[in-house]
Structures are given as C-alpha cells and as structure tokens.
Amino acid sequence: MDADGRSDPRGLYGLQVTVAGAGLAGCALGLAAAVNRVHIAPAAVHRLDVGGARFTYPAANAAAVALFALAALGVAVLFVSLRGAWRQVGAHRRLVRALPVAGSLPGHPAVCVVDVAAPLAFCAGWLHPRIYVSTGTLSRLSESELRAVLAHEHHHRARRDPLRLAVGRVLSQALFFLPVLRPLHERYGEVAELTADAAALEATGRAGPLASAMLSIAATPAGEVVGISPERVDALLGQPRVWRLPWLLLVAAMITIAALVALVWRVGASASAQTSLDLPIASSQPCLLVLALVPILVCLAGAGLRGSALAPSD
After folding, report:
1. Which of 32, 123, 151, 291 has CB 3.0 to 4.6 Å from 156, enough for a Cys bridge?
2. What is the pLDDT of residue 249?
3. DSSP secondary structure string, 148-190?
4. Is 129 contained in some domain?
5. Is there a domain that residue 1 lies in?
C-alpha cells in the first residue's frame, strides 16, 4: 500500500481486519481467563446475615476483580458486534424488500432494474451482491455513460465491497477502544470508490462518460449536485489527493492491544474467585427473594403501562 493510500483498498481492509482481529483476540482471552478462574466452592464464599436472612456473595481478590472488568469488556464487544451484525442484516433485508424490481437488465443478468423514476445505481448484497439500476437512470444516461456506471458497480460487486463495508462498520463500532478503526474504515470506502472509478475509466477509455454519468445521477431537481466527493473529482482530473495513514492512532492501538494481553496474563496468574451455585447477593430463602421482587415487578409494569399510554397512536 502506498503512502497516499490509493493503490489497493484490500491493503486498507486487511490492515483494519488485522487490528480488529487482534483486539477481538485480546477481549476473548480476557473473557476466557475470567471464566477459567471462577471456581464453584460453596464453603469458601462470603456469608452475610441480615435480619435473620442469610445472603451469600462471591469471594474474589483484587486481581480477580480486574480480570472480571476485562471480561466485562469482552462481553460488551461481543454484544455490540452481534447487535451491529443483526442491524446490518436487517437493514439489507428491508432495502431489498422495498425495491420494486422489474427484472434484469437485458444482457446483464446480475443487474436488476428498479422501477423508480429517481436516478439510482448501487451495489448491494453480501456473498452474492447484485447491481441495482433504476429506470430513471436508464432514461438519463447514454450508452457510453451506462457502460461506465455498470463497470463501476461491477467492480464493487467483484470485490464484495458491500460486505467489506458492513464488516468494517461493525468492527469500528464494537471495538470502540481502538479509534484507529474508524478512519481506516472511512478511508476504505473512499479508496473503493476511487478504484471503481478507475475500472470505469478502463472500460470506457476516457473520463467523459463517467464524469457526465456522475453529474446526471447526482443532480437534484433544484439543479444542485450532491454525493460526489471532491477527491473523486480530483482523481478524474488526474490530481489525486495525498492521504497518510494515521500512524499515531495505529501505534496507540498496538500499545492498547499489547497492554490488554499483558494485563490479562498478569492478573490471570494471581486471580482467584470462589462462588456458590446461588446467585450473587441472593438469599438462601426463595420466599424472601420472591417478596423482594414483587415491588420491583410492580414498578416495571407501571413504567411499561405509562410508556404505552404516552406513545403516540397511528
């Protein structure tokens, strides 16, 4: 990968996945170490008598507490990852179901024609992405312009850019303690567009059809042009912008991951925690627990009823 970050988006994506994979491995190591250090030993837990009721809570040293904090970080990363992936899949399904697909473009079985008057052209899908072009786009573009747009989108399809962008977005959200992932993800999206433009230029042999197609698709009814980054314009003019890797953030991420692994290894060696089969801070008398839960359940039910009453009706 060149210093300006324009040679190949796979280099940026590989760097992002490598950093994220190291962060995920560190979180998984902390979670596994915490689980391994918990021992079921009812006689060793702490006991507390309050008003004749006996309560129990786990016995743990300071190293175990630190290890459990790292395990909590791992659980948070896992939760955010699963939630982000679920949202990405749901958003893709809603998008595909909402598109009024009229059929395939003649001569292009991987291109779906969408019966929409607005100019649209994009690539969507995970393992087998497809290209979607609206009827408004087909009516606006000439043959050479359409060839340039299809070459651009076919490049995204061949690289599976929708899947890569979705994975990068989820990793950036989940590993929030590695801020370098966000600029790497954003830069990958920019470089993916630049390389797709380069594929369109190679297919048409000149920049005119792609430039005019971009203006036709991005033009608004008011005559304004939106959605075209200045960097893409500069690249079409043969004046690429210089982009540098965020070395400080990258080094900070490596130090963070190394410190995470070292901390897990250090506290894991001396961590000790014992617990019983009872829930922490739980009474050994079930009836007392039920009585304690009654007011909590009543409060939750009241809050739910109030929320439904205040919710606006359709």
Report:
1. 123
2. 94
3. HHHHHHHHHHHHTHHHHHHHHHHHHHH-TT-TTHHHHHHHHHH
4. yes
5. no
- In this predicted structure, the answer to whether residue 3 has a pLDDT above a threshold of 50 is no
At which residue do the structure tokens 């060696």 appear? Answer: 269
Q: Which residue has the higher pLDDT, 295 or 107?
A: 107
Separation of alpha carbons 199 and 28, rounded Å: 40
Where is average pLDDT lowest: 5-9, 29-33, 307-311?
Answer: 307-311
Q: Which residues contact 181 (CB under 8 A, 6 or more apart)?
A: 16, 19, 20, 168, 171, 172, 175, 253
Question: pLDDT, tens digit, for every residue of 33-85?
Answer: 877 766 555 555 555 555 555 555 556 667 777 878 888 899 999 999 999 99
What pTM was estimated for this model as a whole? Answer: 0.76
Secondary structure element (H or E) that encloses residue 94, with its range: helix 62-98
Sign of CA dihedral 122, 125, 130, 134: negative
- Residue 4 belongs to a domain: no
149 neighbors 141 (Cβ within 8 angstroms): yes
Residue 269: which domain range? 9-310
Task: Classify the C-alpha dihedral 92-95-99-105 as positive or negative.
Answer: negative
Query: Is-contact 90 126, C-beta < 8 A?
Result: no
Q: In this structure, is residue 187 part of a structural domain? A: yes
Residues 188-214: pLDDT tens digits? Answer: 999 999 999 999 999 888 888 888 888
Each residue's pLDDT tens digit, 276-300: 555 544 544 444 445 555 566 666 6
Domain count of the fold of the chain: 1
Residue spans of beta strands (DSSP E) within the chain: 38-40, 46-50, 53-57, 59-60, 101-105, 108-114, 121-124, 130-134, 273-275, 282-283
Q: CB atoms < 10 A from the CB of 231, how many?
A: 17
* Chain CA centroid to CA 258, Å: 23
Question: CB burial class (10 A; 0-12, 13-18, 19+) of residue 91?
Answer: exposed
